[in-house]
Amino acid sequence: MATKNYVKPAYISDTAITFSFGSEISDKISGIVLSIYRAAQNQKLVGKWGILDMVPGYNELAFYLDTANAEVSKITEWVNKLPENLIKESDKTATEPIVFMVKYNGADLDRVAEYCKLSVRDIIELHTSPVYTVAIVGFLPHFPYLLGLPAALQTPRLESPRKSVPAGSVAIAGLQAGVYPSVSPGGWNLLGLTDHEQLKTIVPGDRIVFKEIV
Predict the structure, then answer these.
(1) CATH numbers and ranges of domains, the chain
(2) pLDDT of 114-135, one tens digit each?
């Protein structure tokens, strides 16, 4: 089974329920959420059982409902009976990594290097080494929250957020990575700049790689 323990829905509003698969941010739990999300997309659940939309989080999956037609018991049964092989099959729909070219000239590059006790070159090489997974899209339209940042790059948020972060800023905070899709306030550490227009087609489950512009 996809979920070994029975998962019950929790109402987060009059028109939405969520299924939680843990409390921490991890590749494993996010993988379960994204696999179920993709399986639901493959089975075209939107429009069925009163489902209007589905939104994955780091460790939970939310269903937004037409309350007049919602069949929560059937949604719950589907989530709990989803077979392991169906989840694995849904993973095959994961896209090839999308390449983001980055000019590593961010305002916090030296700060991150100093905090991590690494050289700037080390920071760039570590940041470009993983294949990241889009776990969530939120905060701003098209802002991807990425899992996969190397532990050696863990760096706390700025104590005082900037009032204006340039669009396309490639940034990290804690074990999260992301790209600002538009000019906005922000407290993440800025490593460089990329083409923010690429973010418009990004969806949860997509994979991303960063490559340095030299």
Answers:
(1) 10-91 (3.30.1360.40), 98-212 (2.40.100.10)
(2) 999 999 999 999 999 999 999 9
